[in-house]
Amino acid sequence: MFGINGWEFVIIIVVAMLVIGPERLPGYAEQLGSLVRRGRDLLQTAKARVDDELGPEFSDVDWSKLDPRQYDPRKIVRDALLDDSPAPYSRPASAGRNGTPAAPAEPGKAPYDDEAT
């Protein structure tokens, strides 16, 4: 529920019984129940209103995929490094701008591209 297990819930109930007292505990439990019901109704009406405002285009959107808490940078990097898709095409270093080979260079000089000037 809120990240608590059964034993922690039992301990909270026992502490509440000791602090509040057995006479007032049912009244507080009833108030808490009505508060939870009102909050749930408020959230449902807000969700229905947002769905009405956005229209039918957004009715099939899976919002959980857009939750930023699900992104793990380590997983993203691992998936990118292990991706088997082919690498994007890159020109050879000796090619000119249009993919034509550059003019042959003399030994000791850099290659000269006629189309670059």
UniProtKB/TrEMBL annotation:
Pfam families: TatA_B_E. The keyword Transport applies. It comes from the Bacteria. Residues 77-117 are annotated as: Disordered. Keywords: Membrane, Protein transport, Translocation, Transmembrane, Transmembrane helix, Transport. Signal peptide: none annotated. It is a single-pass membrane protein. It is found in: Membrane. GO terms for biological process: protein transport. This is Sec-independent protein translocase protein TatB.
